[in-house]
Amino acid sequence: MYKGRELKGMPVFALEEQKKIAQVEDLVVEHSTGKLLGFIVSNTGLWKTNKFLPYHAVSVLSPKGISVENKKVLQKNQKQYHALLQQDWLGAKVYDAKGADFGTVADVLLEYPQGNLSGLEISGGLVNDLSQGRTFLPWQEVRINSTHGFMTNFQQDRENLS
């Protein structure tokens, strides 16, 4: 399992060229399913541009980096993906079923090799994080509401979820 912040900055290597071809800038996630579509990556050339690396093109994902067959798998960064960026989620408020503040999104957790989000890491604030730790909110319990952002069906206290 990987956290989103562990993947950001990760190098992308092309097996065919045997070199680093890009670096992960962000994750692209389908909100409705929690499926990882791919990564926004920046190339390592002189003129840095963002590209899209589809998740299905990843050969290996390890703590040392991501391997792909060759640099041809990188696609032009399409604007349709900007609405799905993980960076827009960080710091977003999460509300419980009664509309009470549940915390803020601190990170996402990704199942590998399935490419599914297993859940969100929720922060209750610095003091709460230090004293009680962060809360794991399973993706199945997350609802995305266009008005209120992230919602959860949980009606319990945060302490009961840790």
Extract low-pLDDT stretches: 157-162
H/E element order: EHEEEEEEEEEEHEEE
Radius of gyration: 17 Å
* Beta-strand share of residues: over 45%
The CATH architecture name of the largest domain reads Roll
Give me the number of helical elements.
Answer: 2
Number of strands: 14
Helix/strand-derived category reads mainly beta
Distance between the termini: 18 Å
Helix content: under 10%
Mean pLDDT: 85
Main beta sheet = 7 strands, mixed
Write down the oligomeric state. Answer: single chain
| CATH topology group of the largest domain | SH3 type barrels
Structure write-up:
With 162 residues, this protein is mainly beta. It has two domains: 2-86, SH3 type barrels (Roll), CATH 2.30.30.240; 90-160, PRC-barrel domain (SH3 type barrels). It contains two helices and 14 strands; from the N terminus they run E-H-E-E-E-E-E-E-E-E-E-E-H-E-E-E. It has helices spanning 4-7, 126-132; strands at residues 2-3, 11-14, 19-30, 35-43, 50-54, 58-62, 65-68, 75-76, 93-95, 101-111, 116-123, 135-138, 142-145, 149-152. Strands 1, 9, 10, 11, 12, 13 and 14 form a seven-stranded mixed β-sheet that branches. The relative contact order is 0.17. Residues 157-162 have low confidence and may be disordered.
